[in-house]
Amino acid sequence: QVQLVESGGGLVQAGGSLRLSCAASGRPVSNYAMGWFRQAPGKEREYVAAINWSVSNTSYADSVQGRFTISRDNAKNTVYLQMNSLKPEDTAIYYCAAERSIFDIPGPTSATSANYWGQGTQVTVSS
């Protein structure tokens, strides 16, 4: 079993930055692909970014490409999401997810592929 705990959310003005962290416990996630999703009020959970377990490849949703950066530190069992140039439409609860995979590719990129979820952290961007 893997437990994921997100932190780093908060209130920021448009154009600002935040860095989210996702700390894993229970077992090492060094062989899990890790990703971030978000869910705004009244909307479905959507994919944001993903990274493979060997930290060599990343993937991003078009809406955050060039503004967000996903990274991970396997020694610390932690995944990060650096969010720059934030926009009001980035307001959502952000969730960390882990996917068991025999393929070393970024993931999960769909909510149904995730094996574990964190409880989420609120990000609010004011205009």
What is the topology?
Elements (H helix, E strand, L loop, with lengths): L2 E5 L2 E4 L4 E8 L6 E8 L6 E6 L6 E3 L7 E6 L4 E6 L8 E9 L15 E2 L3 E6 L1
Parallel strand pairs: 2-11
Antiparallel strand pairs: 1-3, 3-8, 4-5, 4-9, 5-6, 7-8, 9-10, 9-11
Total helical elements? 0
The major pleated sheet works out as: 7 strands, mixed
Q: What letter string, H or E per element, gives the SSE order?
A: EEEEEEEEEEE
Q: Which whole number gives the mean pLDDT?
A: 95
Our estimate of the beta-strand percent is over 45%
Contiguous runs where pLDDT drops below 50 for at least 5 residues:
none
Number of DSSP strand runs:
11
Q: What structural class do you assign from the helix and strand content? A: mainly beta
Helix content: under 10%
> What would you report as the Rg, rounded to the nearest angstrom?
13 Å
Shape: globular
Distance, first to last CA = 40 Å
Summarize it.
The chain is mainly β and 127 residues long.
How would you characterize this protein structure?
By secondary structure, the protein is mostly beta strands. Helix content is 0%, strand content 50%. It is built from no helices and eleven strands. It has strands at 3-7, 10-13, 18-25, 32-39, 46-51, 58-60, 68-73, 78-83, 92-100, 116-117, 121-126. The radius of gyration is 13 Å and the shape is globular. It starts with a strand and ends with a strand. 37% of the residues are buried.
